[in-house]
Every structure is written in structure tokens, then in C-alpha cells.
Design brief:
alpha/beta
Length: about 220
């Protein structure tokens, strides 16, 4: 680490369930994908429980008796369904309340920003561009270029992009997969209580704390 880089701090955010509330679109796309394969779709809670994993790994959890080629096939149906929602203007991915202001406050306090998500490169870019956020992140890591969470590869690459060490970074997410990924990378893990896993799961997976709103999250990250 150089003297200059030792002063940097990096906040790495998950996307779905942390920055953006995409649950309605995820559940709708899951329903279409399962229907295309002639299967009954899992319920909403089951669908949301695997958000954050790369698609084939998510399908493997939902369909443990199916083989790997089947998991990849149904994943492709999910992608097509999600793209169709976007093309038809039916995609619903609002920012959670207070997120834009939190990002403003972190940047004003000197923090660098990054994303580590199970989304694809294209999906993440479109989601962030829709909210005018894409250019604000120094590193965007997705399932297209990394093993699925909780493997630490996404965080390790974000650290390298930003030029910071693990002790200077924090991983913020709504699932146990995010907390476990942070632990594997040696980064402090902070949970949010507005996403898809309950706070007890986040604490059990290694979260130092769980914030219930964006203002509380800012304090947990270290904003004055």
C-alpha cells in the first residue's frame, strides 16, 4: 500500500435487495422461467431466498434434484423473461428510500463506491443507468466474470480496482451470501434489514451489524 492509497476507503454494495428493490421483477421472471420448463414456480419467499447467487447456483438451490444442464437451461429462460419485462416497460427496480442520499454523503466524506452483485454486466449497467448512478462506482463486479457468491473474487477485484486493502473496505448487503463473501475476503460485513434475508441470518453469517434504514447504515459505515 502507498501512502496515498492508505487514506482511501471503499464501500462495496450488493445491488438487488440492497440498492434496488427488484423483488417483483425477480419473482415474475422466475414464474415465467419455471412455466417454460413445465414446472410449478417456488413461492415468493423461496425465490427471494436465492437472490444474490449467480443464476445457475440459484436454480440449483431451488431445484436440487435437477442436473447442471437443466439449471443452465432454466437460467436462460429466466434471462429471457427478465429482458422481456425490461423491453415491455414492465421492469420495476426502484431505489430503496434514502439510498441516493447515502451515496451522496459517502462520496462527500471521501469514500469510493463499488458494486458486487449476482446480476449480469448488462443488467447491472441498465439498472444503474436508469437511476443515473452508473458513473459513480469505481468498480462494478458481476456474475458474468466471477464465481458465485460467497466466493470472495468479486470483492478482491473491487479492492484491486480501488487500490485499497481489506481493512479499508466494507461490504454492504442484504443476504447471508454477501456476509459470507465479505468474511472470505477479510472485509467488514454490514447487513441491511430491508432486503431478502432476515437480520438473524445476516448476523449468523458474519454481519457486524444490521441497519434498518439508510441513515442507520450510514452511521454503521462510519459517516460523521
Amino acid at each position: 500500500m502507498t501512502a496515498a492509497s492508505s487514506s482511501l476507503r471503499l464501500a462495496i454494495f450488493d445491488c438487488d435487495g440492497t440498492l434496488i428493490d427488484s423483488q417483483h421483477s425477480i419473482v415474475a421472471a422466475m414464474g415465467t422461467a419455471f412455466d417454460a420448463m413445465g414446472l410449478a414456480c417456488p413461492d415468493r419467499a423461496q425465490c427471494l431466498s436465492v437472490v444474490g447467487l449467480s443464476l445457475p447456483q440459484a436454480m440449483a438451490q431451488l431445484l436440487p434434484d435437477a442436473d447442471t444442464p437443466f439449471h443452465h437451461e432454466i437460467s436462460e429462460h429466466y434471462k429471457r423473461a427478465f429482458h422481456a419485462l425490461r423491453a415491455g416497460g414492465q421492469l420495476h427496480e426502484p431505489l430503496y428510500e434514502g439510498i441516493a442520499a447515502l451515496l451522496d454523503a459517502l462520496e462527500a466524506d471521501g469514500w469510493l463506491l463499488a458494486v458486487a452483485t449476482g446480476k449480469s454486466d448488462r443488467g447491472l449497467r441498465l439498472a444503474l443507468e436508469h437511476h443515473g448512478l452508473h458513473a459513480r462506482f469505481v468498480s462494478l463486479q458481476t456474475a458474468d466474470r466471477h464465481p458465485s457468491k460467497p466466493h470472495p473474487s468479486m470483492i478482491e477485484t473491487a479492492l484491486a480496482d480501488a487500490g485499497v486493502g481489506p481493512e479499508q473496505a466494507v461490504m454492504i448487503g442484504d443476504t447471508s451470501f454477501d456476509m459470507l463473501m465479505a468474511g472470505a475476503a477479510g472485509v467488514r460485513a454490514l447487513g441491511v434489514g430491508w432486503g431478502y434475508h432476515v437480520p438473524e441470518e445476516l448476523i449468523a453469517a458474519g454481519a457486524a451489524s444490521v441497519a434498518m434504514d439508510s441513515a442507520e447504515l450510514g452511521r454503521h459505515i462510519g459517516l460523521p
